[in-house]
Write a structure and sequence with these properties.
Largest sheet: 4 strands, antiparallel
Shape: globular
Structural class: alpha+beta
Radius of gyration: 32 Å
CATH superfamily of the largest domain: Intracellular proteinase inhibitor BsuPI
Keywords: Signal
CATH architecture of the largest domain: Sandwich
Region (Disordered): 22-49
Strand content: over 45%
Domain Intracellular proteinase inhibitor BsuPI: 55-149
Signal peptide: 1-18
Order of helices and strands: HEEEEEEEEEEEHEEEEEEE
Strand order of the largest sheet: 6-3-9-10
Distance between the termini: 108 Å
Number of domains: 2
Number of helices: 2
Pfam families: BsuPI
């Protein structure tokens, strides 16, 4: 009888141990699964937006001046909110050696309020500026610094200088590149009006072919590409009426009209108004 009791006690102890081991293994597997999910969640939360955005800059000389272009590309799977600490969203600095010859922000006044831009997933935001150096700038190689100046991407602070690109650009003597016969195809251009309502008149020679215009403020197109009818076989007088809604006018900046032919090989810049 005593031996039988001992045997029962041993069997019960073995069953208890086995159950304990099974529960322990289940708890361990559960803990590992929870830990893995937690690590994956933390990894997703700590993934930097900076790794999924790219800024592309370029400077190209055209007939009407040097065209600067910023493009901020959102390669993230989600939309990105870009915050600027003021209305100064970018700056452009051009130097000849150590001599400063152009800075976009000179003599400009910017709002001190925050400016926010949302860039959708897979999309981009473009900023453009045109510098008309005039005859005082000698042809040659110039150093260019283009700075996009956001303070935040989403909730992440942007390190100063992160979106700054430095490169060189060759500025040619445009006078040497004009046609040998010096043909003038657009002349006597005049502008009247203000505060978004303008009339532009001038004369165009029909040999220019199809003629177009567009209006922009250096950041956005205010009037998309529009054809100007050209008639007859001699100089033709054209008149363009431009109307821009008050809400679309820039806080400060220059409203420019570009008049150009089909392939933009002949371009005439026309300043409609400078808003400050």
């Amino acid at each position: 009888m005593k031996k039988l009791s001992m045997l029962l006690v041993l069997l019960m102890f073995s069953f208890t141990v086995a159950c304990g081991e099974t529960n322990s293994e289940t708890e361990t597997e559960g803990d590992q699964s929870n830990t893995q999910e937690k690590e994956e969640s933390e990894s997703a939360e700590t993934e930097s937006v900076m790794d999924h955005v790219e800024v592309v800059t370029e400077a190209v000389q055209q007939d009407d001046g040097i065209h600067f272009r910023f493009e901020l590309i959102n390669q993230h799977s989600e939309d990105v909110l870009v915050t600027f600490p003021s209305g100064k969203q970018y700056d452009i600095i051009v130097k000849k050696g150590d001599e400063l010859v152009y800075q976009y922000s000179d003599d400009k006044v910017f709002t001190e309020a925050l400016v926010e831009e949302t860039i959708e997933s897979g999309e981009s935001k473009v900023w453009e500026e045109v510098w008309q150096p005039g005859q005082e700038v000698e042809p040659g190689e110039y150093s260019v610094e283009m700075q996009l100046l956001p303070s935040k991407l989403g909730q992440e602070d942007v390190e100063e200088g992160l979106f700054t690109n430095n490169f060189t650009v060759q500025i040619a003597d445009r006078a040497e590149e004009t046609s040998a016969d010096g043909d003038e195809l657009i002349r006597n251009v005049e502008v009247t009006g203000e505060n978004g309502s303008y009339q532009v008149t001038g004369e165009v020679h029909p040999s220019i072919g199809n003629l177009y215009y567009e209006v922009e403020d250096g950041h956005n197109y205010l009037v998309e590409k529009t054809e100007i009818p050209v008639e007859g076989e001699d100089w033709y007088t054209f008149s363009i009426d431009v109307s821009i809604a008050e809400k679309d006018l820039p806080f400060n900046g220059v409203i420019m009209m570009m008049i150009f032919n089909e392939d933009r090989s002949y371009t005439v810049p026309v300043q409609l108004e400078q808003i400050q």
